[in-house]
Amino acid sequence: MSFKKRFIIQTLVLLFIIVVLLLLLIGSTVFVALMKTGEIERDRDFAEAVLPYMSNSVQVENGELILDDKLLGKVKEYGGWLQAINERGEAIYSFRTPPDVPDRYNPGELTAFWTGARPFPYLLYVFIEVKDGQQITLLYGFKDNAREMTDRIREAAAVTNDGIDMPENVAAELKRKGIWAQALDERGEEIASWNKPNGEPAQYSAQELILRTQYPERYTGRIASLYDERTNLTWIVHFPHGTDIRQIGDTMTIREIIQVLLLSFLGFALIVLVLLFLFAFWYGHRFGSPILHMYDWLHHLAQGEYAEPKDRHGHPRSKTRAGKLRRRFRLYTDMIASFAHLTETLRSNEEMRNQLERAREEWIAGVSHDLKTPLSSIMGYAHMLESESYEWTQAEVREFAGVMKEKSQYMHELIEDLNATYRLKNDAHMLSREATEMNGYIDRAVKQFADDPQFAGAHIDFRGTSDSLYFPIDPVWFRRIIDNLLANALLHNPDGTNVRVSLETGESSGFSIRFQDDGVGMDEATAARLFDRYFRGTNTERGGKGSGLGMAISRQLVLLHGGSIQVRSAPQQGTTIVISFDHR
Questions:
Q1: CATH number of 318-427
Q2: Cβ neighbours of residue 272 under 8 Å, at least 6 residues apart?
Q3: I need a surface site. Which of 78, 204, 372, 537 has the fewest CB within 10 A?
């Protein structure tokens, strides 16, 4: 998979994970806020919300009732009390029961207290449950602050023609809670009201007042009523659902809700900031450190340090001790591989450049020596011929002239090699190619090379193909290829070395020319540099030959003819050089 695809996939995965985490965080925050709000709502209407659960949590062990300690703590916190009554009306369990609460009830007495038919100083909630085969009635009571508030309103308020006149301090407290009041006459018709919402009734029957008192959940709120014998007026105070009638005047409920929402938002924001910081740190370490490492690597390459930067333990930063890529670098596998390849290429090129520089210096020294030696001979014979102190015979003059001609010819060939290699290097040489029958051409070239007195006694054998083979070549420069390869095989091997030249056709339309000798061969390093300019694999004293350019020229000429050249050799196993062409 390419770097682009891996990067896109990994980025999408990270974005998906972030979105999922944010959704989970938002869901958790909303859940916590709802739970806290529910607790506040439960606390605002403790009896209706919690007592059914408490009734269900009652356990009977060895004839004794056991209630949940946490819920009992809530009962204590809200100033209430608990009492469990059996079927005979006897109290079998009490928790914070006040002294004025009876410990035994007659059959109709509890009903009278609960319905309000008989005065009772506490507001009662009754739950009936069957436990261990017996019916248990659970009473939850608390001081009826609603009635006290109603008494307070009756004493403080006054009915006027414009409505109910309420003192400012009382009015402000009631408005914060959304409480409103009505004054009814003997027929149950409203004669005055205060803070009454729209849509509320202006007349009540006795049955409706009882229903609203006993079943407040069916209406917009609960009510507390009080009959004033002095004025024959019935005062009704309406408490919206959620108003804690045990703690009238407490304004903490709304603030608690706001506080829960604010804390939930702040907690959400804080967690998001922490997660973003951790994600940024992780993202920078995961994606940024490999980029910084590659930048540092590139800087090292620019400084000529052809190696991957190491850690403090001396190991490449991108790899483990086992040589595998570290996890955070795996996304950049292709780039790391490219950097490694570039590093190795630059290092290899630097080594080759240094080797080439040394070889060139050695070659210049060798060529300088090769030029000075024949030049010294020429100058020496010239001085001898110029001298008037001695008269040379014609035979001696011809001998001197022959030596001078031989040395001059060597210098001319050396200069031609220099000229040829630079022209070929800069592609300044144009071949004049013509279709040539290769069997006859190579056979003639091999025989002419063997006739050279310098290679007298050489064992050179040529084997051609059975069919004629035509290929466009430059006859002059292709002869240079054959001469150079044959000279290399004979000059750098001992006398008596056998050389075989073979013209072979391939399975397709191509053909190859194989030069194979049974000489001393060469090692891998020498074979790798055989076609480098200025390289002379062995020293030779065979006529001072060996400019170090012949094999480089041969390779360039093969390439110009559209071919390729390869060498195979091993010490003491001879050398084989194959030049191949695509004949179409």
A1: 1.10.287.130
A2: 22, 25
A3: 372
CATH class of residue range 46-143: alpha beta
Task: Give 306's contacts (C-beta < 8 A, 6+ positions apart).
Answer: 300, 343, 344, 346, 347, 350
| Token code pair at residue 320 | 């483990």
Q: What average pLDDT does range 5-16 have in this prediction?
A: 76
Amino acid at 552: A
**Superfamily grouping for domain 430-581:** Histidine kinase-like ATPase, C-terminal domain (3.30.565.10)
The distance in angstroms from the start CA to the end CA of the chain is 39
Whole-number Å distance between alpha carbons of 90 and 70? 25
Rounded-to-integer distance, Cα 47 and Cα 241, Å: 13
Query: What percentage of the chain exceeds 90 in pLDDT?
Result: 14
pLDDT above 70 (res 47) = no
Per-position DSSP letters for 128-190, written without gaps between them: EEEETTEEEEEEEEEE-HHHHHHHHHHHH-EEETTEEE--HHHHHHHHHHT-EEEEE-TTSBE
Q: 108, 94 in Cβ contact below 8 A?
A: no
Q: Is 291 left (phi over 0), alpha (psi -120 to 50) or beta?
A: alpha
pLDDT confidence band for 248 (50 / 70 / 90):
very low
Nearest CA among 3, 22, 78 for reference residue 46: 78
SS3 (DSSP) at 230: coil
Find the radius of gyration of the CA atoms of the chain: 57
Under DSSP, the state recorded for 455 is G
Burial degree of 508 (CB within 10 A; 0-12, 13-18, 19+): exposed
Helices 145-156 and 168-177 pack at an angle, to 10 degrees, of 140
Q: Which residue has the tokens 């009041």?
A: 181
Other CB atoms within 10 A of residue 481 CB: 25
Residue 532 · residue 552 · CB < 8 Å: yes
SS3 of 53-102: the string is: HHHHCCEEECCEEECCHHHHHHHHHCCCEEEEECCCCEEEEEECCCCCCC
Predicted pLDDT at 78: 74
Task: Give the span between the Cα atoms of 371 and 358, in whole angstroms.
Answer: 20
Q: Which two tokens stand for residue 287?
A: 């994606």
Look at residues 51, 47, 121, 60 and name the one whose alpha carbon lies nearest to residue 92.
Answer: 60
More confident residue, 422 or 429: 422
Whole-angstrom distance, CA of residue 158 vs CA of residue 192: 10
Any residues with CB less than 8 A from the CB of 60 and at least 6 apart, and which? 66, 131, 132
- C-alpha distances (whole Å) from 213 to each of 100, 120, 209, 210, 237 are 24, 15, 6, 5, 11
